[in-house]
Amino acid sequence: MADPITNNYQDYHDLPRLLVAMENMWPAGSCTGWHSHPRGQLLYAISGVMIVHSEAGSWVVPSNRALWMVAGLPHSVTMSGDVEIRTAFIDPSAKARLPGQTSVINVSPLLRELLVEAVRIPLDREVSARDERLINLLIDELTVSSSIPLHLPLPGDPRLKRMCEALVEEPGNRWNASDWAREMAMGERTLHRLFSKETGMTFAQWREQARLLSALKELAEGRKGLEVALNCGYSSQSAFSAMFRRQFGVSPSAFYR
After folding, report:
1. How many angstroms separate the most distant Cα atoms in the chain?
2. CA neighbours within 13 Å on the CB side: how many for 145?
3. How far apart are CA 256 and CA 219, in angstroms?
4. Phi and psi (nearest 5°) for 117?
5. What is the distance between the alpha carbons of residues 41 and 12, in angstroms, rounded to a whole number?
6. Integer Cα distance of 171 and 234 in angstroms
């Protein structure tokens, strides 16, 4: 891909309208750097995968899904594969109509087309009656969009955080909770109790989620199913596919279709 098309998002925040939208294109491996927005943000990936990081954890956003991000959340976005993005910034005055938590959502065909049309609304003229109807329908469609579990929370405890970062770096790591507890000089029961308190998930659930999210990233980069399965700690491609289907309801190939 050529140089990134990176419109300056700050130019969009002060416009006197409920919603503004823009498009960006980023090459594989690029990163936005840490920043935040005074408006809520809808990030939609047409192609590639976005990995959105925050202090509280990360979200993996595959193509044809979107991330709804609440206003004011410090974050950075890393691109896996070449990524084409549509972004909508929504004024906080619409808060009563917007989701209250950051989450990955399914994008319906209607929401997708509304985003395309929203990008085409000129910034140098008054919003027309048609534009207002389009914007309000987009917000309404966002509020009824279903969320999907693509969030990986990070614990605040420094020891557990280092462990989680190591597992994200090496998802195929086969150490169990007992191994990690011994490494950190704590009891296994203490590890389980603290981990659940800090993340809202068990250690096993979190590791499974980390592996699945890593698999999404690798699949987006064009790696084959067997290679992905082994890299992410599964004993076979069939075991990986079964776990993927249990989590998302469809096979890996169907998920991307």
Report:
1. 64
2. 32
3. 9
4. -70, -35
5. 11
6. 10
Q: Which of 77, 141, 67, 75 is nearest to 104 (CA)?
A: 67
Amino acid at 206: W
**Mean of pLDDT values over 192-202:** 95
pTM across the whole model: 0.81
Structure token digits, residue 188: 């296994």
Architecture label for domain 154-256: Orthogonal Bundle (1.10)
Provide the pLDDT for residue 3: 44
Q: Average pLDDT for residues 93-101, to the nearest whole number?
A: 80
Q: What radius of gyration do the chain's Cα atoms show?
A: 20
- Written as one letter, the residue type at 103 is S
State the CATH class of domain 10-148.
Answer: mainly beta
What tokens appear for 78 in the block?
Answer: 């890393």
| Tally of CB atoms within 10 A around 127 | 18
Helix runs in 120-236, H state only: 129-143, 158-169, 177-183, 188-199, 203-220, 225-231
| CA count, 13 A, side-chain hemisphere, 102 | 25
Q: Whose structure tokens read 């690029």?
A: 30
Domain definitions of the chain by residue range: 10-148, 154-256
pLDDT of residue 4: 45
Q: Which residue has the tokens 């190591």?
A: 166
Using 50, 70 and 90 to split pLDDT, how confident is the model at 194? very high
